Amino acid sequence: MTNDAGKLQQERYELFDKLFTGQIPKRVPLGHYVFNPFAIQFAGYDLFDSQWDTNGLLAKACDEFCSQVFTDIVPVASVIVPYPYQVLKSRSYKMSKGGFMQHPEISGMDAEDYDAFIKNPFDVMLEKILPTLFPALDTDPVTRSVNMAKGIVAYREEQAVMAKIRSDATAKYGYLKPPANSSGGGIKCPFDFLADFIRGFGNILIDCRRHPEQVIEACDAVFPLLIRKATPSNPHYMGTTSITTHMPGFMRTKDFEKFYYPTFKKMIETFVDSGMGVRVFCEGDWMRYLDHLRDLPENVRLRFEYGDPKIIKEKLGDKHIISGLYPISILQIGTKEEVINKAKEYLDILAPGGRYYFEFDKSAITCQGNMRENIIALSDYLRDNATY
């Protein structure tokens, strides 16, 4: 690490340390990032070839992005990589014809399996759900063990490559470096876990009508497994465990309060009590649920996809840390002037008083239209002008 990179890293640590503890940093921290496919297209490489050549083309694409786009965190994040899922013949994650990994609607178990799942969710996941989602595991015990080992090795190899890419970028460009082993990665809250992988979006909403008590009991049953998965060995408020949310925007408020919110809140409270930093991506429109978010422990990091920034700031800005809302779509279709003016608009509303950092409203996956030149112009503007 150069002296300049080391100085930047220390400055960035101080920025986020103040942000995460309710103080006002000297400028707005920049937390916007893109996924691998965006960086690949940004660098002009082939999407298919680069996702299979992670040590070569993908690493070069990530460095190209880092060299031109200013932000305070490692700005390239790993979306689902294809190799481990191909090994397992995945039905839950597939590469589209365009080269993007997608998560189709799928159910890993039937409604009649709820009682067994509630009794022992781990066993049911191993014996029924995984073989359903990954047909390479739906075979005799010996072949299943071999295929599982292949999938695990492939996954760990790809994660090691991405970890090295992030580590190299952190050292070269001086990005924020939280304490070692202080982040728990990404996790679903119990209801979303059931919706995404166990029953599917459509089935889980039907289950709330036909099997309400079993849905509640299933959320409680899987809760300890999810907590264990996402709790790092060295919990620290400077680390991050991210909770992505999918179902609240599709639920009636009374159903959200009955089925979703209890274990959602309990999960966040459990993480915060252990000393972890918790980030929630409030996907969809959460304006109905601002009072519920207000009731969460202090300094939870709330990234919003949609909503009125003025109301969000008014209701939550003195207790929680707000990000998101900036429409990534404007990067694709807008002029540089429009992109910067939109940033000024959100900074004027959300930055005063602190507890805000810059982030997009959605994940940046595809680099299309005017995105390449606009994301550079936006980042340069924020670097020089984003203050409280």
From TrEMBL:
Signal peptide: none annotated. This is Uroporphyrinogen decarboxylase (URO-D). It comes from Desulfotruncus arcticus DSM 17038. One of its GO terms (biological process) is porphyrin-containing compound biosynthetic process. Gene3D superfamilies: 3.20.20.210. Pfam families: URO-D. InterPro entries: UROD/MetE-like_sf, Uroporphyrinogen_deCOase. GO terms for molecular function: uroporphyrinogen decarboxylase activity. Residues 185-354 form the Uroporphyrinogen decarboxylase (URO-D) domain.
